[in-house]
Design goal:
The chain contains 11 helices and 8 strands. It is an alpha/beta fold and about 290 residues long. The strands form 2 sheets. A 6-stranded mixed β-sheet has the order 3-2-1-4-6-5, sandwiched between helices. Helix 7 packs across helix 10. The radius of gyration is 21 Å and the shape is globular.
Length: about 290
């Protein structure tokens, strides 16, 4: 008897745990365990923007819910901040193709952000996060999951150094400041972007690249952001050091405060002079 052909969504799922087991599934499970991201009884809003990262995250979360050792609930949440009709349609088509039961809600974030004199990207990101927290909480969720990956972590670290004069990065999870009891988690924290692209291409999947109405109105169509600048820099440096991304990522897990002249912890500034005359050279590893 002939074997029944797999549906497209089943082929996608199979590729995650077979062909891309080492580059997608293993780092995903590793992040869940290392950073303690999912607990028994959680209800998590998986936030889907329409891009490759968030759709892959949705499939990974489906797989771990079905085959993991914890019982938890998922809501697949998609906020429409004012997408053009064709972009909204593309998200809906991908959700149907991948068998993701999406919950949609609308906002006017694009109109508000594009009508301000402030940085529209900053305002848009801040408003998006607030709406996601608010809506997820109203649905009974205690956590929101975002699709940031290892490259996002590295780029954020470099951007903070080059443009904010501080060494700051993107943590794998954090408590919300304004929505009590809510937490943000980043399950794809250890996944490389190039492997997400490979997975999408292998399965002939196409996703939204940038659906922002602000960038649609720029001269080049896509804004030349600082993040893109960091991507180019990393690509150039990688030519000399193929392990550059891994080294950058590992560096934020191995911060040696003893060697820093100053640091900020819980909104308090500290100086190496605070205990300079108390500690012996051996305490500093010298």
């Amino acid at each position: 008897m002939a074997k029944k052909a797999l549906e497209p969504y089943q082929q996608v799922e199979r590729s995650i745990i077979t062909k891309y087991r080492k580059t997608l599934w293993h780092p995903f499970v590793m992040a869940l365990d290392e950073y303690d991201l999912i607990h028994e009884g959680d209800k998590i809003a998986v936030c889907i923007s329409g891009g490759k990262d968030s759709f892959l995250m949705a499939k990974l979360m489906q797989e771990i819910q079905a085959h993991g050792n914890k019982q938890f609930d998922l809501v697949y949440l998609c906020m429409d901040p004012g997408y053009a009709p064709q972009n909204r349609k593309k998200i809906e088509e991908n959700a149907e193709l991948l068998h993701i039961p999406m919950t949609y809600f609308e906002t006017d974030i694009f109109d508000i952000a594009n009508g301000t004199d402030r940085n529209p990207c900053y305002l848009c990101a801040k408003m998006r996060r607030g709406w996601l927290y608010k809506t997820a909480k109203s649905l009974g969720c205690g956590k929101i999951a975002l699709g940031h990956h290892m490259d996002d972590v590295n780029e954020t670290t470099l951007m903070s150094m080059f443009y904010s004069s501080e060494l700051r990065t993107m943590p794998p999870k954090l408590h919300s400041l304004h929505y009590e009891g809510m937490e943000l988690i980043r399950p794809m924290y250890r996944i490389r972007e190039e492997n997400i692209i490979a997975w999408a291409n292998y399965n002939n999947l196409t996703f939204l690249q940038c659906a922002c109405r602000f960038t649609e109105n720029t001269e080049r169509g896509v804004a030349e952001s600082k993040r893109q600048e960091m991507k180019r820099l990393i690509r150039e440096l990688r030519k000399e050091n193929p392990n550059l991304e891994r080294s950058l990522f590992n560096s934020v897990h191995n911060v040696c405060l003893d060697t820093f002249p100053g640091y900020n912890y819980r909104d308090e500034e500290h100086s190496f002079l605070d205990d300079y005359d108390i500690l012996k050279p051996s305490d500093r590893g010298e």
